[in-house]
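hi! just following up on the protien thing from before. the input was this:
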Amino acid sequence: MYKMYGDLVIYSGRAHPELAKEIANYLGVELGGIEIFEFPNENTFVRLLSSVRAKDVFFVQPTCSPVNRNLVELLIAIDTFKRDSAGRITAVIPYYGYGRTDKKDEPRVPITARLVADLITVAGADRVLTVVLHAPQIQGFFNIPVDEINVFFLLEEYFMEKNIPDLVILAPDVGAVRRCRNFAQRLGVPLAIVEKRRYTVSGGSKVEDYGIIGDVKGKNVLIVDDEIDTGSSVAHAYAAAKNFGCKDVYVCAVHPILSPPYCYQNLEGLDIKEIVVTNTVPISPEKRARLPKIQVVSIGPLLGEVIRRIHMGVSVGALFKE
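and the predicted 3d structure came back as:
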């Protein structure tokens, strides 16, 4: 097959080297040599240990915590590859930080997801490979090709194998209905939705109550979301499901952000059977210790196959057709 670019090379930033190693192992290559460090004045510096001239470079760097450091590191690395005359540069961003600031929903605020897209493009990336964006329209913020990989099917397969009886998929809010409906259809189970209600009481103060559209009484519930950050959405959905008489509660999400200390405050006391996530971002030993119900489904081999297809000029979409 005719190759448009030179040899495929995988590089990793400091955000998630474990995932980069999984990808490299799948592809049967070694990670490229790279030095990344900070000077005493906190300026980030990147040095390649060998030339990438004319090569097809894939740089793995989710923009997770510490978000700003990892984002700047991504931009500087892209610039480094460009100035060494890489044939093509693909930014592999399993988690797209700032993705939740995707629209101007109140006066005098930024659209940071668009700004980050511009920064990545100006830095010199030729394309982006990412996983489950918080808002699909972020793809349109780029003027370069974007491959957004939907990995929910890996979570669906996990729960298909568990074959939990009397299962109901629970959307934690109205915004999650579409993905949860698809999840429920794949598993062949019903869907329920958490409904947030706001009331004004005496004195003008507002209180929130959570209802459920659908039936969870006596059922096992699976809460599905794209990410778990502070855990408040999960906690509210859990409380609502328990108030309406559910049995066991399971949780799954693609991105385990788990921002401390809030994730501990919201999740530690809940009797959740499992919290099933992927490894788009690393999970620290502390988080694993304090949230022992976490189970991780790896996306490394899937990303490796997607990268192979991009490199060879083979359809990525065909990989997901049933």
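The first helix runs from residue 17 to 27.
The first strand starts at residue 8 and ends at 12.
cheers
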